[in-house]
Amino acid sequence: MEQISSFEIWYTFFFQLSSVWIALFITFSALFIWRKNLGVLGHLCNSPIGLVGLFIVLFWVFGAIFADLVALFEPFEQSGRYRRKPPGTINAELGIPYIFGTDTLGRDLFSRMIYGSQIVLLIAPAACVVAYVVGITLGLPSGYFGGRSDTILSFLANLVLAFPVILLFYLLVAPGVRETMLPNIMAGVFFLFPIAFALMVVYSRFSERLNVLIPSFIIIILVGSWLYSGLVFNADPLGLVQIDPNELNIFAAVVFASSPGVFRLVRGLTMDIKTRDYVAAAMTRGEGPFFIMIWEILPNARGPLIVDSCLRVGYVTILLGTLGFFGLGMEPESPDWGSMINQTRSYIRLVPTIVLPATLALASFVLGLNLLADGLREESAKD
Amino acid sequence: MLVFILKRLFTLFLTMLCLSFIVFSLVTIEPNLKKLALNQANMRMEEEAVQTWLEKNGYKRPLLVQYSEWLGNALTGDFGYSTHFKKPVNDVVWPKLWHTGILMFWVLILTIPISLLIGVISGMREGSKTDRALSVFSIITTSVPQYVSGILFTIILSSWLKLFKGVAKAGNITFENFTLPVLTIVLYDIGYIARMTRASMVEVMNAQYIRTARLKGMSFISVVFKHALRNALIAPFTVIMLQFPWLLTGVVIVEKLFNYKGFGFLLVSAADQNDIDVTLACGVVAVILVLTTQLISDIGYAFLNPRIRFS
Question: Which of A223, B144, B223, B254 is the most buried (most CB within 10 A)?
Fold first, then answer.
């Protein structure tokens, strides 16, 4: 079987990623040119660690976007002749090299790694966004009003946080659970929060102006229920929004595991910020509690929240990897990084390089997010 | 102080009750029970026969009745019968827990001093070159989850350099086969604790009384040892105790990765094999472990920090 040299492997690698490099170049030039007008993101230019983090994160973002251009093979394309081949083996029929080798079914590891980023970079941030909306919608009133509902919500949050994560996943992400309505019920509860949050935002701003308030309420409820029907019941009338039951199960479990953390963070920040003078000023002005929470407290809590969101996306990526590693949830064919690690790790004695693409991809993406969070923390502390 | 402890104990029991109920209801969902029936009685049972089997074994009663029966038995020390091992659950779980205890012991013995040292050294002089280097090191270690670092260690240290063994045998621990699992867990945990220690140390070093001590003419080293350390180490104590849910997850991953037949391995295989009583027992033991460490952390924090103790 023909081989290409390691120089050619890396040459092909860099050449295949050229669309990613161009996109990175454009983004970073734009960042440097307009760094004065970009707020925290512009300050990031002073922090080498933060820039390295941003570079790695954007590398994977563009990799996921341009996956069709970057990949050499289809992610599910099998080949009986080229099983567990070392990096650089050439597929004689097509004349294309497997630059990172193949897995045990003869699928190209490089292409699977690139397509895997699409799954990971979709689920992890999306789950974090929903977890954030849930945490903010509950955490703001909880920290602002206090009282009995705060006690109950905090107790529930601590309940979830006391669960060892892995046990939670073994209980919530299982074939047996998918036969019940449980994932749909959980998703049904969680996806109510974005709608509630949007209504809260609009209401707090326009509660006096009914001519704006009523149309926006109608739009939110229409769009919300359209997305809701597609995501929760898999019954979108237009057929545009749909989600695989496996993915819904994972999604619900991840949101369930991470929203209590966000809740605690937002609650703590709210309790701290509500003692500030500008909140007292808004109260004197006669603003309602929801206006103060959303337009006074939330914007002033953004620093810690942005830093935490970077860390949290990284943590959720690790969680998704853990699920894949235990073979939970994802379809067995799935090219996401955790499942790839699970599929390949039994063969490391035969071909040591077989696990490297997935493991290094996952570790580098999380590292990028953590470095970015560190850079952002330092720069926002200087303000 | 006594009222505080009693209050915490009350919340602890309430939490334990809620969590064990959640675990119970999730483990005994309908599809799991049906699978159990098929496994136990006859693989080719009709739907009707399955229902009769469930009826006969009392799985058709209201959930709360089943739960209180299980709880009553569990409180008297009877956790049921393992359908996979064909033994009482007690004979299965406790030996495995002992194996994991040994693993945890070594992990903690290594993690705590190393991470505290890194945190204190980098927080001592904020922004120095050592601080930068150690911070980047801790960020890197927290970014590499156990299932990645464990595999990389196996490739490099076991397959390639042949220093250690890639499989750890429970009950027969040697330096050769036990180093990799411990190393894998320790490395992931160090970063987080070190960063928390660093943050706490930085905060203390910027406090007024440290400046006073320095201006008084005390040497930097003795300020660090006599004034800073005591106050800076309160927060990491809580962090270490609250790390337990994560540590447990790490242990499960590492035990699976290195085939170490401990508690985590049991939990995973029991859940995979639908061994209901064992999964329940493991879940409840895990929850109790986590809650107990939380209680210790709360009481310890109040004990170490007079501002809370007397309020």
Answer: B254
One domain for residues A16 and A157: no
- Quick check: A263 and A134 in contact, CB under 8 A? yes
Locate A280 and state its tokens: 């007292």
Question: How far does A160 lie from chain B, in Å, by closest CA?
Answer: 8
Express each pLDDT in A40-82 by its tens digit: 777 788 888 899 999 999 999 999 999 998 888 888 888 878 8
Helix (H) or strand (E) holding A93: none
Residue type, A276: R
Burial B98-124 (b: 16+ CB within 10 A, else e): ebbebbbebbbebbbebbbebbbbbbb
Chain A residue numbers touching B27 (CB-CB < 8 A): 171
Q: Which of A228, A232, A251, A242 is nearest to A330 (CA)?
A: A251
How do the residues of chain B divide into helix, strand and coil, expressed in percent and rounded to 5? Answer: 80, 0, 20
Tell me the ipTM for this assembly. 0.87
Structure tokens at B141: 């270690």
Is the CB of residue A55 less than 8 Å from the CB of residue A376?
no
**Residue type at B283?**
G
Non-local CB neighbours of A277 within 8 Å, separated by 6+ positions: none
Query: Helix B89-124 crosses helix B175-205 at what angle (to 10 degrees)?
Result: 40
Nearest CB to A362; choose among B148, B268, B282: B148
pTM of the model: 0.90
Q: Measured between alpha carbons, how far is A118 from A75 in angstroms, rounded to an integer?
A: 11
Containing structural domain, residue A63:
6-115+357-382
Chain A CB contacts of B155 under 8 Å are 348, 352, 355
**In chain A, % of residues over pLDDT 90:** 37
SS3 content of chain A, % helix, strand, coil (to 5): 75, 0, 25
Residues of chain A with Cβ-Cβ distance to B243 below 8 Å are: none
Contact yes or no for A359 and B152 at CB 8 A: yes
Torsion of CA B56, B58, B62, B65, to 10 degrees: 150
Tell me if B129 sits within 8 A of A322, measured CB to CB: no
When pLDDT is cut at 50, 70 and 90, the band that residue B171 belongs to is: low
In chain B, domain spans: 2-78, 91-304
C-alpha gyration radius of chain A: 23
d(CA B19, CA B30): 19
**Is pLDDT at B164 greater than 70 in this prediction?**
yes
* A194 in any annotated domain: yes
Residues A61, A200 share a domain: no
Q: How far apart are CA A195 and CA A222, in angstroms?
A: 10
Tell me the C-alpha distance between B221 and B228, whole Å. 10
Tokens standing for residue A197: 């949050």
Count of structural domains within chain A: 2
Residue type at position A262: V
A180 touches B: beta carbon within 8 Å: yes
CB B30 within 8 A of CB A177: no
Q: Using an 8 Å Cβ cutoff, are A70 and A19 in contact?
A: yes
Q: Domain B91-304 in CATH: superfamily?
A: MetI-like (1.10.3720.10)
Residue A33 has pLDDT above 70, yes or no: yes
Asked if A162 lies within 8 A of B136 by C-beta distance, the reply is no
